[in-house]
Every structure is written in C-alpha cells, then in structure tokens.
Amino acid sequence: MKNRRKNREAFGEHSYWQSYSDMMAALLLVFVLIIAITLAIYRQKTVDLDQARLDLNAAQTKLDQAALELEDFRAKIELSNEELNKSLAELQEAYAQAALTEEELNKAYLEIEDAQNELEVTKNELQDIVGIRTDIIGALQSAFNNSAMSVDAQTGSITFSSDVLFNYNSAVLTDASKQTLRETIPMYLGVLLRDEYQDYIAEIIIEGHTDTVGSYLSNQQLSYNRANSVARFCLDSGNGLNEAEIARLQQVLTVNGRSFSNPVYTAEAPGAELQVDMDASRRVEIKFRLKEDEMIEKISEILRD
Questions:
Q1: Dist CA 154 CA 145 (whole Å)
Q2: What is the pLDDT of residues 3-41, one digit of tens each?
Q3: Local confidence band at 160 (pLDDT 50, 70, 90 cut-offs)
Q4: Rounded to whole angstroms, how far apart are CA atoms 230 and 243?
Q5: Is this model's pTM higher than 0.70 or not?
C-alpha cells in the first residue's frame, strides 16, 4: 500500500512538473514567437523607416530642386519685367518721337506752303514787271533822242566825263558842266521818277570813278565827292526837278565813290595786254536798279532755304 501510494505520489509529482514544463515550453515558444514577430515587425518598420527616409530625402531633393527652379523662374520673370518695362519705355519714347516727328513734319509742310505762297506772290510780282527794264530804257532813249548824251542800251545808265564836269583833281562843278547837267538831269531822272515806274525803281545811283593815278583812298574820296556834287545839284529845285520829284528822288538816291576799282580799258587787238583808258575812267555814272533784282535775290534765298 505504501509502495502504491509512493508510486502514486511520485507519478502525481512527475505529472505536475511535466505540465509545468510543457507550459513553460509553450510560454517560451510563445515568447520566442513574439520576439520573432517583434523582430520581424521591427525589421519591417526599420526597412519602412529607411525607405521613408529615402523617400523623404528624395522629396527634399525634389523640393530643393523645385525651389531652385522657382527662384530661377522668379529671376526670369523679374528680368522679363525689366525688359518689358524697358520695351514700354522705348515704345513710349518712340510714340513721343513719332508725335514730335509728326509735329515737325506738319511744321515743315506749313513752312513749305508759306514758301510756296511767297514764291507764288513773288512770281506774280515778277510777271508784272517782265519787260519793265526794256520799257524804261526805251523811254530813256526816246527822251535822249535829240541829245548829245547817249543811254546805255543794256543798263540804261548815262555817263559824264569828269573832265567835262570838273577841273583836274577837283570835286567842284564848273559853270559849263552845270548847264550840261540842267539839260540832262531833268530828261533822265524825269523818266525814272514817273508815276508809272515808281513801284519798280528800287534805287537811283550816282557813282563816281577815277583813273589809276594816286592812292586808292585819295581817289575813293575824290570819286565820292564828285558823285556827291552831282547828287546835290540834282536835289536843287532850281536845276530842273520839281519838289515832288526831288522828294521821290531822296527816297531812292544812293551816292557811291568807287575810286579806280572799275576802270575803263582801251580796245586793243586780240591777245594784246589791256591798257587803262585814263580819260574814260574819270567819269560819273547815273544808273538805276529795279525791284526785280531784289525779287530775284529773294527767290534765290527761298530756294537756298
């Protein structure tokens, strides 16, 4: 009985430790499985974390690249804005220049139109006096038809020899010359001072000339004094012109002394050296200038502009 009880107790004790051992083994297995699973999960999480880090790094790289591209794009936009502003400024300047050019062009058109109008007026004035020089010269020649004096057919001037009017080296009119002038001046100036020619005569010129003996200045003074003596004679109402003619003459009269700047030369054979004709060079000329000469100069100025 005792043996049976001992065996039973031994068997029961053995059975208890066997169950405990199995339980512990099971727990250990479970623990190992948990650790294995945990390690597997840890490894997976580590792999996932590394992948996430890689993805994050890649994303950061892309973000940095995007930031660089954005900065470059912003710089390009700023450059484009600067170029656009510059283009706008140039366009505004071009518009301003175009407006200025148009204004200058309009001004030029107006100036051209004014010049054309002025030229047309001058042309009409010239047409009005075409042939007037011929008419005046013809009237002068008719007036001197029966006179010893002659009128130059080209210029309409008359010439007095200084030897006829003055003594040598003198500017005082001789008594004989005064009579000659009283016969000649009214005929010559009477034509030029007619009402019908008043609008065409720009200037009546009394011009003294000398020979080439002596200095230029002394001859210039002598030639002027002689021309002035003739002018003073013409302006004296007792010498043929009436008061109205004298008043009109004063408005257009010019007195010049030319010294020996325009001598008269003797006619010689072709090729021969020209010689100054001393007697012919000593002279006083009376001539006229028409307003058509001024108009021609006026037209030339318009064409030069």
A1: 16
A2: 555 555 544 555 555 676 777 777 777 777 788 887 778
A3: very high
A4: 17
A5: no
Residue 266: what pLDDT? 87
CA distances from 82 to 47, 68, 89, 110, 127 (A): 51, 21, 10, 41, 65
56 pLDDT tier (thresholds 50, 70, 90): confident
- 8 A C-beta contact, residue 205 and residue 213: no
In the chain, the amino acid numbered 101 is: T
pLDDT digits (tens, 9 = 90+) for 74-124: 788 888 788 888 888 888 887 777 776 777 778 877 888 887 787 777 666
SS3 per residue for the chain: CHHHHHHHHHHHHHHHHHHHHHHHHHHHHHHHHHHHHHHHHHHHHHHHHHHHHHHHHHHHHHHHHHHHHHHHHHHHHHHHHHHHHHHHHHHHHHHHHHHHHHHHHHHHHHHHHHHHHHHHHHHHHHHHCCCHHHHHHHHHHHHCCCCCCCCCCCCCCEEEEHHHHECCCCCCECHHHHHHHHHHHHHHHHHHCCHHHCCCEEEEEEEEECCCCCCHHHHHHHHHHHHHHHHHHHCCHHHCCCHHHHHHHHHHEEEEECCCCCCCECCCCCCCCCCECHHHHCEEEEEEEEHHHHHHHHHHHHHHC
